[in-house]
Structure formats: structure tokens, C-alpha cells
Specification:
Elements: E1 2-6, H1 12-24, E2 32-36, E3 53-55, H2 60-67, H3 71-79, E4 84-86, H4 89-92, E5 97-101, E6 104-105, E7 108-109, E8 123-126, E9 134-137, H5 139-142, H6 145-153, E10 159-163, E11 167-170, E12 182-185, E13 188-195, E14 198-205
Parallel strand pairs: 1-2, 1-3, 3-4, 9-10
Antiparallel strand pairs: 5-8, 6-7, 10-13, 11-12, 13-14
Amino acid sequence: MAVVVFDHEGSAQRYLPAYTEVLVGSAAVEIQSVLVRRGRTVEPDIFVDLDGIVVAGGPTPDYLAGLSSASAGIRAAVGSGVPYVGFSAGAMIAPDAALIGGLRMAGLQVCPSDWSEGLDQVTVRPGLGLLSFTVDVHSAQAGTLGRAVALVEAGEVATTVGIDEDTCLVLAGPASGLDGCSVAGSGSVWIVDYEQDRAVVSRIQATLPNPLPDPA
């Protein structure tokens, strides 16, 4: 299993166990850590012959830049049935059109500055190409749902899906879209579509048990 983690001056060593302990537990799984660093790209052949791909959280623009060289390999792996799990930034970079940050649209603030990734304008870039809809995260907790709505209302993307913390959106496959999706965890998934000349928000609550241990 490849676990992709952003690294700055050794920071990955602090964060990597948090992902491997939750995902693997006591099972005998070989972990291949893949470090993303600013100004460098990941080797594409890393994502060959894997049983799972996990992309962690952290600076979304850096994850997308670091994995851009390997996007075709990741798509090929997922297309062949390899599961992809994205935490925070890892979920945001997965779509065809990836939201990488920003807090303003048309001069108006649409989300808190703490979640802008250092970008002023809300910015969408070509992502890994695994999903047809755009993803935002920490929706209820960080107040990013306004950004998801603004993106659709402005016609920047057709659909945005906002995912709460401690919540997982489970898809049947890369081509399935939201058909047959499930939600696990303690929060909600917010779906923003454009209907009748306006952005319309619907909410899906958990239909599966929480797969992660109680953080308490």
C-alpha cells in the first residue's frame, strides 16, 4: 500500500504513523511511504503493482503539484480496481477539476481565510482525474460549504461535494459518480448542483458505520 504524505524538513515522520496505524492496525501490510516535497515531483512508477493508494492531508497545492507527474499511473491503478483513499487534500486533488484553495470569488469572501491554502482567489486546476465532481472538505467544521456553493453558482464547476470531518464518502468506482454512493462517519456529505438557474444543496447522512476509532 502506498501512503503519500507531504514532507517538509522531516515532518512526514510525525504524521505518517497516524495514517498507517488507522488504516493497517495489526494486519501484515507492507507500507510504501511516498513523500511529496515542494519543487519536486513523484516518480510515476511508484503506483504500479499496489493494493491500495492513500493520499494524506496537508497543503493541497503541493500535493497536486507533486503528484502531477504520476496522475496517469494513479488513474490506471484505480481503473484496474486499486482502492484510492484521500484524506482532506487527498480528496480535493482526486477530481477532474480539483479545488486547491482560495477564499474569494468576484471580490467577495466565500470561506474563512484559514482554509485558503494561502490563495486569495478560489482556484480550480486539473486534478488526478478520478472523479467527475469537485470536492471540498471540512465543510461544517471549517465553514467551507460557502465556497462549494459559490463555485457551482458561478458556473466554474457543475457539481461540488463537500465532506465533513470524521466522514467518508464511499464510491463504487471511478466512473460511478455519486450513483450508489455511501457515507460513513459522524458527519454529512453536502452535494451542490446547479438547478433552475441557482445552486441547490442537498445533504447525505451516514448510511454505514464509522470505520475509524473514536478519537476520544
